[in-house]
Amino acid sequence: MASAWDLSTLIDSLQRDLQAQIDPQNCVMVGIYTGGVWIARELHQRLGIRTPLGELDISFYRDDFSRVGLHPEVKASRLPFSVDGTHLILVDDVLYTGRTIRAALNEIFDYGRPDKITLAVLVDRGLRELPICADIVALKLRSNPGDYIKLRGPNPLSLEFLPGEEVSPA
Predict the structure, then answer these.
(1) Is the bond into 114 cis (omega within 30 degrees of 0)?
(2) Which tens digits make up the pLDDT trace of 1-45?
(3) Contact at 8 Å (CB) between 77 and 107?
(4) pLDDT per residue as tens digits for the range 91-142
(5) pTM higher than 0.85 for the full model?
(6) Torsions phi, psi for 29 (to 5 deg)
(7) Where are the domains of the chain?
(8) Which fold has domain 3-61+75-162?
(9) Do 155 and 161 form a contact (C-beta atoms < 8 A)?
């Protein structure tokens, strides 16, 4: 059975928590393709951040890039500002294993050295493989490896959860 959430309420939560932690006049925001960029566009506008929005494609930075069956749709990263010395807000849609965020951090540091990075995610689904956690989370779920959580969009945006089949030991 599929579940859906009110994205407006979830984005409101991210906005509220970010407003309490950032100065929109002295930070930069970067979204991770694709869902993180969609969420970041909305947050960037709502928060009134001065600098243009950055967009990051971490495809070539993933540690599982060469796995059989991985065929990413590679997009160009765009960081229209210097990251050196900034408070960088990194936005993604779903935090799962931590590998996407690790790849994003590696790419960001190829551009420069921010003073601080705040990670904001729409959904934290647990089941981490790397010791990475978000600073700001709109929705925490405890999911199973076979579950499917996907942000669809960009117009309209919707978040879908499809529970996977339980696998019982043989």
Answers:
(1) no
(2) 345 678 999 999 999 999 999 999 999 999 999 999 999 999 999
(3) yes
(4) 999 999 999 999 999 999 999 999 999 999 999 998 899 999 999 999 998 8
(5) yes
(6) -125, 140
(7) 3-61+75-162
(8) Rossmann fold (3.40.50)
(9) no
